């Protein structure tokens, strides 16, 4: 990483629930600040105007972005600790599964 990471957004949308098995936790950075040290197994899936990067070896979801954006979201669980990041907000909460506990207020 050659620049700052945004604090974590927790996404409760139905797409994240289907691809991650539940809410997805994403940080983000400027696309130009992302430096991959290894990308042989990296694969991209384009759907509904978004691009998602995943590991072709294990299937892990790693990145999310929309074409034309200057930022790219990075799965927080893929970052080596300590990250110093905090949960900044929950998004698409109205789409959360009925099995999810409500996110904390505030």
Topology:
Elements: E1 6-11, H1 14-20, E2 24-30, E3 42-47, E4 50-55, E5 61-65, E6 71-75, E7 87-91
Parallel strand pairs: 1-7
Antiparallel strand pairs: 1-2, 2-6, 3-4, 4-5, 5-6
Instruction: Give the overall pLDDT as a whole number.
Output: 92
Total count of strands:
7
State the helix count: 1
Give the class from helix and strand content and strand pairing: mainly beta
Distance between the termini: 30 Å
Provide the domain count.
1
Strand % is: 35-45%
In short:
The chain has 106 residues and is mainly beta. It is built from one helix and seven strands; from the N terminus they run βαββββββ.
Word description of this protein:
By secondary structure, the chain is mainly β. The chain has one domain: Beta Complex (Metal Binding Protein, Guanine Nucleotide Exchange Factor, Chain A). The protein has one helix and seven strands, in the order βαββββββ. A seven-stranded mixed beta sheet has the order 3-4-5-6-2-1-7. The model has no long low-confidence stretch (mean pLDDT 92).
């Amino acid at each position: 990483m050659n620049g700052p990471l945004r604090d974590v957004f927790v996404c409760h949308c139905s797409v994240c629930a289907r691809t991650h098995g539940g809410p997805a936790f994403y940080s983000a950075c400027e696309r130009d600040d992302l430096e991959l040290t290894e990308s042989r197994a990296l694969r991209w899936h384009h759907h509904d105007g978004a691009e998602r990067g995943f590991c072709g070896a294990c299937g892990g979801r790693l990145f999310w972005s929309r074409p034309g954006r200057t930022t790219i979201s990075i799965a927080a669980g893929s970052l080596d600790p300590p990250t110093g990041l905090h949960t900044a907000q929950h998004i698409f909460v109205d789409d959360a599964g009925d099995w999810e506990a409500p996110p904390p207020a505030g």
